[in-house]
User: What shape does this take?
Amino acid sequence: MSTTTPTRELDGASAVGVRLQKFFDDQIRKAAAHGPEYQRLWQAARDASVGGKKLRPALVITVYRALGGTDIDAALAAASAFELLHTALLMHDDVIDRDLVRRGSPNVAGVFTADALEHGVDGAAASVWGEASAILAGDLLIHAAQRLIAALDTDNDRRMAVLDVFDEAVFTVTAGQHADVSFASRIVRPGTADILAMIENKTASYSFIAPLVGGAVLAGATDADVRSLREFGRHVGVAFQLRDDVLGVFGVEELTGKSTLSDLREGKQTLLVGYASTTEAWQRVAPLFGRPDMSEADAADLRAALEASGARRFVESVIADQADRATQVLAESALPDHLRADLADVVRRCVEREW
Assistant: This one.
């Protein structure tokens, strides 16, 4: 079981996996008419969708059922759309970060880069081929996700409400991603508030707020319940991403499936770095940060500075604070008791996870 998937919705998340497998099988079959490389693109996109926490579809289904939704087929379609969006955004994120591995295996860019190199293409051209393939695959999945929602078999008002939630998520996550790149590129020098706002836009918006609110409006929830879920998603989403940032530097690679060097090599402006950069401990090692050729020894020096500066302790305190705020939102809401219990478990798992 995933560390963040509500137990009672595991079957629903599995059903989403089955739906997505059929979707990709259909697309791979259609793509054959356009040649083997295009078919290979869809195969790589399918492989990218396998695994992961399936958190977003589980949240859609959990909320939909808890708030009185009875059309499970519509809920599964919406849940599948949010999972496709997630897969697409990961593809684009990996291109931006120049990562070739995701979940311990080559990602779409990695697969096509390796294919090109095996065919004797030079490194620069192989990278272009890999990155272009990942961008195009991501674009295809965002379109497919939107189409799933547009085709929901429900009344028009609810369909449009879910579509609005999806559109808002894409709009907001792009703002967050754009800000993230501006920070890493040193175009903008962010403060703590800027970094937290970026996290809310980039992660909380589509990973928590959108699936929670999407499931709610599809079920015909009250405005008060939607507001509570939106506020809850904001806080738990920030806590989730901050934990991810800590694991990205201090995690166990065998558990996370992600290099603990990539964020440091990229020069990613996490809250860890934002806090540390104001301290003397960080200034001594700052020239190492963001170096593409960073060694394990250099990374160890940066980790030591993050500890010595108090940055890790500070971020852990923010994670705890955001988790407390999310829990308080639940306590003050009028959401059903069993939904509050499920969502409280999500908070705990987000904070305590090791991958």
Notes: Residues 33 and 132 are 21 Å apart (CA to CA).
